[in-house]
Please model this.
Amino acid sequence: MANITTIERARKVFWFVALWFAGVGGAMLLALPFKLLIKAGAALH
Model:
């Protein structure tokens, strides 16, 4: 029984980490155009 709970815990941890990475990656992709716009604006001035 302990083996099954260990596998379930590992699966939950894996999903938490995977979703966290997806969230962070998505936020970085959303921020990228704004970062480029800020750099372009700074280069113009």
Notes: The chain has a mean pLDDT of 89.
